[in-house]
């Protein structure tokens, strides 16, 4: 589910991502989906947790077109330039992670702090079409439990841009640096700050 979320949420309404979750879970008969964070421990490390290798295998068996149309019911592309379908990108992500021994959440948990593991994996993941400035990759690690990552998408980047009264949207790298510095100053994790900003921006509250 982390792989599907990381890939399908880029430049998409989150309701569409939830639909992808549900479609995939229905197809493979996953009993648990979209659990509250407090209940995640009941699945992580248990038999009910599906490995990324199973997503990769399904993609190989069906092919990207059938996976997109018949299973995920989402044929969107990784970019407006006509890159590959997000379904294909998700399968490539899953295969790279599986090949690297990062099959489940517990496998990934230590990876972001171990450069001998994460650097070669990130280099391969960055080659999957749709990488852009790295938002998708950062979000993957965040979903997998790295509290010092953010998802620097347009919604998150708008917040510092507006408060700094800039004319141009801050870059992904600038957003990462700004939120990292602010999180340190506030004494919270970058994930907590990312989530607070996302909730604020999503609420449509008066901006100032």
Features:
single chain; 208 residues; mainly alpha; 2 domains
- From the spread of the alpha carbons, the general shape counts as globular
Q: Which percent bin holds the helix content?
A: 55-70%
Oligomerization state:
single chain
How many beta-strand segments? 0
Rounded Rg:
17 Å
How many strands, which pairing sense, and closed or not: the largest β-sheet? Answer: none
| Stretches with pLDDT under 50, minimum 5 residues | none
Q: What is the chain-wise order of helices and strands?
A: HHHHHHHHHHH
Number of helices: 11
- Structural class, judged by helices and strands? mainly alpha
Mean pLDDT over all positions: 89
Measured by DSSP, the beta-strand proportion falls in under 5%
Domain unit count = 2
Give the N-terminus to C-terminus distance in angstroms: 36 Å
General description of the model:
The protein has two domains: 2-143; 154-203, no CATH class. It is globular and about 50 Å long. The longest helix has 15 residues, at 14-28. It is an all-alpha fold. 35% of the residues are buried. The protein contains eleven helices and no strands. Helix 1 (2-8) packs across helix 5 (86-99), helix 3 packs across helix 4 (64-71) and helix 4 (64-71) packs across helix 5.
Topology:
Elements: H1 2-8, H2 14-28, H3 52-62, H4 64-71, H5 86-99, H6 105-109, H7 115-125, H8 135-143, H9 154-163, H10 172-186, H11 190-203
Helix pairs in contact: 1-5, 1-8, 3-4, 3-5, 4-5, 9-11, 10-11
